[in-house]
Amino acid sequence: MSTKKIVALVIVLSVGASSAAGTCMAGMKFKATLTNLKCASATPSTSTCGNCCEADTTKCGGATVACGNAKYKDASKNGMASGSGAAAITACCTDKATCAVAVCGAGMKRKASVNATKCPTDAASCPSSCCEANTAKCGGSTVTCGTGKYKDVTKNGVDSGTGTAMITNCCTNVATCANAVCGKGMKLKTSASSTKCPGAAASCPTSCCEYDTTKCGGRATKFICDGTDIAKDHNTAGTTKAQCCMTKPATPTMATCEAFKTSPVASAAQRMAVSVLFAVIGVVALWK
Predict the structure, then answer these.
(1) Structural domain range at position 60
(2) What's the rounded Cα separation, in Å, for the pair 90 and 85?
(3) Is pTM beyond 0.70 here?
């Protein structure tokens, strides 16, 4: 492809990228009056400008539909025209999944003779009503691990066995303070590396960590900043209020709903296409 043709494509896509105005989420529509309404960010987007929108009762997402016992209102159909009566059920509802498609979690199993049982909605909603503890697995077994070990949830799907085999299969040695990751403004206690934690490494900080007094967050009573100042990150080095407080950053101006509705908003796909084509132009130019 010639450089001229590539440039032409970039121009076409750039125009396309700037031709699509902001849109509400499926099943929503812009409010009739947008004056003085703002988005939740300085950069407008469908996800941050929900305040600009309201339910569109002509769409499935905004309509009230009685789907009946065997169906559920399907969020994936929110943007479809709802219609009314039986047409609304057809447009907006989907048959409920059954326990036959349930995927039970580790340490769980499907209940006996429940394949025909209907789930609350789709397949993802099935486990709560279709699954039960599997006592043949660690997750569904009662295990006494003993001192120095804990029942490890990462082993929930492992066959539990019995007796000492159960302890081997389902339990893990407790972590020590050497594995601890202390929070901001905290540090590992001196000579605590061999101290055992209650369970996995995530359980360590309570018994392994203490305040790091060289950090802004290293004290039980944190600094209270004056006026409109705000505290710096707790991991910031500092021992005084002056070192640990800073002027509050200026609040960005939120995008207006009017601007979101009317201003061009490029889609991610369009921005990517333009970026790729510019890269191609660069490569072609290097070849010449």
Answers:
(1) 27-94
(2) 9
(3) no
